[in-house]
Task: structure prediction
Amino acid sequence: MADVVARVAPDILVLQNVDYDHGLVALRALRDRLAQEGPRYAQVFALAPNAGVATGLDMDGDGRRGRRSDKQSFGAFAGQGGMALLSRWPVARDQVRDFSGMLWRDLPGAIMPARQDGTPFPSRRAAARQRLSSVGHWVVPLDLPGGIFHVLAFHAAPPVFDGPEDRNGRRNHDELRFWPLFLDGRFGPAPEGRFVLAGAANIDPVDGEGRKAGIRGLLAHPRLQDPLPRRPAPVPAQPEQAGDPALDTVHWPPPGPGLFRVDYLLPSSDLRVIDAGIHWPPRGTPAGDVAAQASRHRMVWVDIAVP
Result:
């Protein structure tokens, strides 16, 4: 992972699936390890994720409690699989907004799962406690030389691994719908400009499973632009997929589902994009083997001119 970060050397880095611990001891150790080969980030930031947070209820409808699927989001322990932000510039911590505690039912137009009789799935008590964010929804302001720049960070649930109630598919859809509503001012004032939406949406707008309306609506929002980061050529064709394989950001090898575009960097429409890409060197090369070992997901990057 340190090798991949050193090769791309971003000024602002959003990491996914990083366990959260009190005092960010592990994150600071990771920052120091990255600095041995690449950039040193003056600022490290993370908030506790919803993953692994106990509810005391049966949240998946199997009649049992206390299992990983009965947490606010799937996890073995509180703090597992969180997010983190590393930055060359200071975080304006007194202006951070964290929407991770928002209840799913409080999202306008929420499509929460229901039983055949119309009652909430798996129960009214569970629905009343279920948060929207599987990991988190953050609005993190950074104090750049030209003024505040916002990073809108998130990690949505995979739209699979559930039953006919489509609990995860519905949640993924609504986690993505949060951002258009936020940008439209439904949850307080949104940044007027100079921001980037960064996150793992866990869904491809064309291929694979899931409710496509959520990600397609996000990509089409007028306050965002999609720079369409691409993998370096040549890119092998995927005969069973309709989307452009050069846009894929993850490879779940067999018996997994394959290659998809599930990770996104979407700058605000007022910013000028200089370049964008996906760090995906070919397998069989030292850099490619390192990238494949670091994660099934590849690093997505965007160079932007910030006025």
User: Anything to note?
Assistant: The radius of gyration is 19 Å.
